[in-house]
Structures are given as C-alpha cells and as structure tokens.
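Propose amino acids for all 294 sites.
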C-alpha cells in the first residue's frame, strides 16, 4: 500500500459545466470559497471541459487569488481529442494516450490553470490503441520533473485497471460513473477491483445527470422510494438521499458534484451527515434494478 497516497475530500466539485454556466470570475471565486469553507478541497477538471475554457477561467481566478491554490487538490484529465474536422457525425471525438500527447496536454493543463504542479492527472477514457508501457513512461517522467504529483484513470474496467497497474503500480484513482440509478460497476467487478488495488473511486454523475428530476424519467418505483426515504429522514431533497447512498459504501467513494448553483452544492454537502441503513441501501438498489436480490 502506498504511504503517500493522496487523500481527497469526501466530495469533489466538478467543473465540466462551468463554461456553459456563464459565471463571472467573482461568482466562480465565491463557489470555490464556499466549497473550501465546507471542507471540500477537491476540484475536478479535464482538458476538454468547455473546450478548455473551464480551466482557463479557473486559472484566472487562481492567478488573482493565489491563496486559494494552497488549499485545494486539483484533478484534471487528458486523452479525449475533439475532432472538429469530422463531417460524418461518427467521430466527433477520438482518443490519444501516446507519450507525446500526454506530455503536451499536461503542459497545456498547467498553462490554462496557471499553476506549476498538478495534483492529480487522470487518463480520461480507455484508448484502444493505448500502449500501457508508454502511459507509464509518461507518468514517471511527469512525476520526475515535478509537473504532476499523483496519477489515476477514468472509466477503466477490470482488464484495463490490471494492465495499467502492472506497468505503473502507483495508480491511485479510478473515476467512474456511479449513482443509485447507474449500477453497472456494482455488477461488473470494477468496484471490487478498485478495492483490491486500494484505489480511490471518484463518482461522476452521482445524480444520474439530473434526469431523475425530470418528467421524462421512467423508473417511477425508484423515484417514489427516494421520495419515501427523503420524507422518512426529513431531508430537503432526493439528491441528498442519492448522495448518501453513494457515501454509504465502505470504499468511501467521492461523489463529484457538477452543479454551478451554490445552494445546490450546499444541499449536496449535507449528505455527508446522513447515514442510511443497510436495509434502506438495498431497498434503493433493488428499486433501481427492478429486481429483488437472490
């Protein structure tokens, strides 16, 4: 087990919607300060969020308020390439995890964020052309020159986790989609493999992308059960139940909250004080999969 493994805050603030939110730099600063005041010091980026504009705006705020940088853990990702020349509609994006690309994108991330060292770099998605030895070489070189402290992956399944950890044993994080209405990784062995390798799991879309709050959501049994639990616990919203469901897991999964509204962030953070019973956790699980446990 690594002795210097990074410790993320129990939730993270995800910046994937920052550019479309059209916040001023001062409004973004207020959100950052609000997170830090609640003990949420992990901020999740990627080089593609807003076409890079999310990191650029975040970097402007850090440059104006350097004291904030000292209090935070910044995560970013690379590996997805936007393809503006695609006319077919089939390849608006493709993947590149070559040594040169990882090095180039890391330099871009540091430049956009206006920082000298990135706390965590993740490979964003599984690249079918990935040379795991070359990814490991890039990670080792970035660490050796002091540009990145810690490394991880995102959306990796069991075989890819084993392959990258064989070449680079110091992988620390796997960021995957986890929510009470997205049970895939409880069924395919990824959660257990993360436990086996002592990886921190970051959960993106912990509220299922928000679809459950719309009239188009089709699992009324789950939605009704969430409302029932919310009422029984006298909570403000089912978002708190959904987050508490993730937080119940013994791996201490870190939900990544993507809202750009401060009151929604504060509501979500309250889930840290909610303890669901095993029975309630499994009631929600079975209502999600619409199937009883064997």
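Proposal:
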């Amino acid at each position: 087990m690594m002795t210097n493994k990074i410790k993320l805050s129990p939730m993270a603030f995800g910046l994937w919607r920052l550019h479309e939110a059209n916040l001023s730099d001062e409004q973004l600063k207020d959100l950052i300060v609000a997170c830090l005041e609640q003990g949420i010091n992990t901020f999740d980026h990627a080089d593609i969020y807003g076409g890079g504009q999310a990191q650029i705006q975040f970097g402007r705020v850090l440059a104006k308020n350097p004291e904030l940088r000292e209090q935070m853990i910044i995560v970013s990702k690379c590996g997805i390439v936007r393809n503006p020349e695609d006319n077919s509609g089939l390849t608006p994006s493709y993947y590149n995890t070559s040594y040169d690309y990882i090095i180039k994108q890391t330099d871009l991330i540091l430049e956009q964020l206006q920082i000298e060292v990135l706390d965590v770099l993740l490979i964003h998605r599984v690249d079918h052309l990935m040379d795991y030895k070359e990814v490991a070489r890039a990670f080792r070189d970035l660490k050796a020159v002091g540009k990145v402290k810690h490394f991880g992956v995102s959306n990796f399944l069991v075989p890819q986790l084993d392959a990258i950890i064989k070449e680079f044993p110091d992988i620390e994080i796997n960021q995957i989609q986890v929510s009470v209405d997205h049970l895939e990784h409880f069924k395919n062995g990824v959660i257990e493999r993360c436990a086996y390798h002592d990886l921190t799991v970051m959960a993106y879309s912990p509220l299922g992308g928000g679809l459950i709050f719309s009239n188009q959501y089709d699992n009324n049994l789950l939605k009704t059960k969430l409302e029932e639990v919310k009422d029984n616990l006298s909570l403000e919203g089912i978002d708190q139940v959904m987050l508490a469901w993730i937080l119940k897991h013994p791996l201490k999964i870190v939900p990544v909250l993507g809202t750009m509204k401060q009151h929604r962030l504060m509501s979500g953070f309250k889930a840290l004080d909610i303890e669901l019973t095993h029975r309630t956790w499994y009631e929600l699980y079975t209502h999600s999969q619409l199937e009883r446990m064997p």
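The radius of gyration is 19 Å. The chain is about 45% helix and 15% strand.
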